[in-house]
Amino acid sequence: MNIYVSNLSFNVEDEDLKEFFAEYGEVSSAKVITDKETGKSRGFGFVEMSDDDAAKKAIAELDNATVENRNIRVMEAKPREDRKPRNNFARSNGNGGGYNNRY
Fold first, then answer.
1. How confident is the model at residue 1 (pLDDT cuts 50, 70, 90)?
2. Among 8, 24, 26, 81, which residue is least crowded by beta carbons within 10 Å?
């Protein structure tokens, strides 16, 4: 099962994320998502656990838990195609979204 974890402290790294979930069962992977340009954490990540029952227990017990003075949110990750598309004008019109782009 793939698990989405948000509101992470920017100090949390992949290994820390893995440790949060390891007490519930085997963690196949744990990845904190980082900004491509700066390499800094974006405050969320994904954890993959092979045992669905262990994953569900981890979700139930870790959702709203306090980690480094932040209440993290933990839920089953939804497949990319199930998510509502983001409305991002600057990317959708191809001209960068500048104020005076009229030509």
1. very high
2. 81
Average pLDDT of the residues of the chain: 87
Q: In the chain, what are the domain boundaries?
A: 2-79
Position 81 pLDDT exceeds 80: no
Whole-prediction pTM value?
A: 0.76
Sign of the four-CA dihedral 40, 45, 50, 54: positive
Do the beta carbons of residue 8 and residue 70 sit within 8 Å? Answer: yes
18 CB contacts (<8 Å, ≥6 apart)? 27, 29, 30, 47
CATH number corresponding to 2-79 = 3.30.70.330
Inter-residue contact 35 to 103 (CB < 8 Å): no
Q: How far is CA 22 from CA 12, 28, 35, 71, 81, in A?
A: 15, 10, 25, 19, 28
